[in-house]
Amino acid sequence: MASVEAVFREERGRLLAALVRRFGDLDLAEEVTSEAIEAALARWPVDGVPPKPGAWLMTTARRRAVDRLRRDQAFAARLAVLQVEADRAGPVPAAEPGGDLPDERLQLFFTCAHPALAAEDRAALTLHCLAGLTTPEVARAFLVPPATMAKRITRAKKKIREARIPFRVPGADELPERLPGVLQVVYSVFTEGYAASSGPHLQRLDLAEEAIRLARILRRLLPDEREVAGLLGLVLLVHARRDARTGPGGEPVLLEEQDRGRWDRPMIEEGRDLATAALTGGPAGPYGVQAAIAALHDEADDLAATDWPQVVALYDVLMALAPSPVVALNRAVAVAMRDGPRAGLELLDGLAGEPLLRGHHPYPAARADLLRVLGRRTEAAAAYREALDLAGTEPERALLRRRLAAVERHDP
Questions:
Q1: Are 411 and 403 in contact (CB under 8 A)?
Q2: What is the CATH number of the domain that holds 338?
């Protein structure tokens, strides 16, 4: 049964994308994909997994779709209108050489991440359609009730239908504008898995691994796009530290305290190669630069051995490419490591008016750490309390409570 589930996991996104491309309707494609998988669950344990499982699923799903259209003339008429839009994207591709289905997941990526959709809906739809998560599973990923997530997904699909959002890969002239949105959706899924915004756990490893799987699919489908390599390299280099980031009770273990022997070295090597590819052959992009920063952290034997001047230089590049208060916060922390806590604190205090940082607990936490090192304990305690009020997960709050208590006891 495990092998059958693995097939479903790999084939579902390809099958769904091919059916949407053929019939022009995401709801119909989802329904017949589910029916085909249900049929396989009944047949394959008895008959065995067929030599070309994707082709078997496609044939079954296509027959179910045709039967549905024959029974529902109104539905068929609506699809005929939508098919006009799909036809503008060109003919349906033939199957890949030696493959079961044409791999049209890239088209589905761009549909799910279309800028006409609300930002919160893009990630939900991507996880639902391309990662194959059920509505309750996506709801758990975003820590909302299943009914709320069902409304989001329904709203997104309705928008795709009513706005006639085309199921296609943007042309070469559109790709530079549209690709960052797709990458941002995948990265936002990863960051929620790497550092959960709320809940009982610091990490959501299942969510982070789904994002990595989606990034790998993108890398296979767009092998020449250096920012895709940068994104995959970045998430691998960060995820390589996963086992060392929490203690036995789930408590956070900060970078300077992590057992680097527990870091995933093969994953680091792969991520470093991807970072190199992302920075080779043209101007650097934001994900390539972030991957290079992550590689410098992963290559160092300890925190003190990190090449902080190079980290700061890369943050300078990143600020020029994609300036944001969060990037400025991270740069200030790197400057503190290079030039001392006073220099870092001066930069952090200069960010005090940034609205985006007001609800971002790492900002007061970083200030508190530097204030503590400088011996300004009363101010440090106030900053720790501010961070404690903003922290979203219980492990983060527990860490901040310990640091606050240490400052109040005048521990070193």
A1: no
A2: 1.25.40
Q: pLDDT tens across 133-142, in order?
A: 778 878 876 7
Least confident segment among 214-228, 282-296, 318-332, 335-349: 214-228
16: nearest Cα among 129, 134, 169:
129
> How buried is 43 (Cβ within 10 angstroms: 0-12 exposed, 13-18 middle, 19+ buried)?
middle
The 3 state secondary structure assigned to 301-346 is: CCCCCCCHHHHHHHHHHHHHHCCCHHHHHHHHHHHHHHHCHHHHHH
Residue 98, domain member (yes or no): no
DSSP code per residue over 142-189: HTS-HHHHHHHHHHHHHHHHHTT---SPPPTTTHHHHHHHHHHHHHHH
Its domain, for residue 338, covers 328-412
Cα atoms in the Cβ-side hemisphere of radius 13 Å centred on 326? 7
Measure the CA–CA gap between 385 and 400, rounded to whole angstroms. 8
In a domain? residue 79: yes
Instruction: Give backbone dihedrals phi and psi of 246, rounded to 5 degrees, phi first.
Output: -135, 150
